[in-house]
Amino acid sequence: MSTFQSARSIAASVSTGESSAVDVVSQHLARIEEREEEVHAFNLVLRDEALQSAERIDERIAAGEQVGPLAGVPIALKDNLCTRGIPTTCSSNILDGWRPPYDATVVSRLADAGAVFVGKTNLDEFAMGSSTENSAFGPTRNPLDTSRVPGGSSGGSAAAVAAGFSAMSLGSDTGGSIRQPAALCGVVGVKPTYGAVSRLGLIAFASSLDQIGPFTHDVADAALLLECMAGHDPGDSTSIPQPFPSLSESLDRGVAGLRIGRIVDLPSGADADVVASVDRAFEVLADAGAEIIDVTIPAFTYGLTAYYLIAPAEASSNLARYDGVRFGSRVEAADTNSMYMATRGEGFGPEVKRRIMLGTYALSAGYYDAYYGKALKVRRLMAQDFATAYESVDALVTPASPSVAFPFGSKTSDPLAMYLCDTYTIPSNLIGHPAMSVPFGAGENDLPIGVQVLAPAMGEPTMFAVAAELERSAGGNHV
Ligand code: GLN
Q: Which of 78, 155, 299, 304 is the most buried (most CB within 10 A)?
């Protein structure tokens, strides 16, 4: 359970003038000052900008204006979200010196709701990884135990909330990059339905999988933040042209009468303490009136292999644009081809190069059908299997991460071991469904465990009802 003030109570006290936005931001900046050297959650702290926007909010409130539901709430942004005039690096050397000419849609929506941006957070380079050890700027540490990773790729955003550097943060989730670090840092993390949140201004990793979502101290804050940023954006052609459902009634709905599925053929590999927490979650939900129903999702097991073809394939195409001509750094060379090679050779780190090579291979003539084409068939099967399961249940519950936070370096020499962190999170990305991790129980060394709640597309209201119930029974913040 988090000891920090919720964003809801910050916004309430700033809006009524009970506390000033400047004081709230200063408190958070003071915590950053105290621990950031040790944690390294940020690539850039926006100290002056944050204080200035807090001052403007206080002025507007003094003038009797309504500022919005996030009035004065300090928020950290993953450094793959474009911020106008402010460096946006994806934790890669290849974007060195680049300043986006526009704000991501989520950034402008949160600013309109009164948020104050305190910094750009560290990530695995181009969001590829599960530990934030792949950053070109050095790793982020888990604030709960600095000998361990915060998870990834949104490790900086998860750590910023867990350390009290910001009340909320944004991450992106392509295969688990919000839910897994949320689990490892003991905070709430949500991957919304694909298309629920605009991707305009999110630097693409794998466009058919990427979604932006919240990290918060509790479930109600996650609902608030998601409601502020979701909804149709004509600037993203994959954005759902429908209003996003309200989540506020879900928080106190309870789970009475809900049918919650237990996937009996879930891939193994989760540690015993994680399995025990998930078992306990089912007990708690049953006690609260849910019906627990066994379901099978045979294709779940193939998610990891399909993802590690589809995501690198899309990445190899998306990352082709970083060639020293339009963005970031260039390494000069005798002719254009040598310049491309030198720029990409120096600009990208080893994991990004590995993904580009895997993806290029999977898409190449002669291999396309055997690899990429086959992975797309698995994706279709996955969607069918989930659709069948959702004929008999309203939501599903699984582990978020197979383990609690692991020590630095324990998986860096074995990319496959790192990829296995994504076993339980990937299927939701492949089929575009929402999923979230909520802190529930503790494991080895008292480190937090995240339980994952899954629901069908646009099923966020049900998903939040289940997560809120788990949080209540775990003694979480929901006040
Ligand atoms: N860990 C996964 C990967 O490395 C997921 C990353 C993500 O969701 N951005 O691809």
A: 155
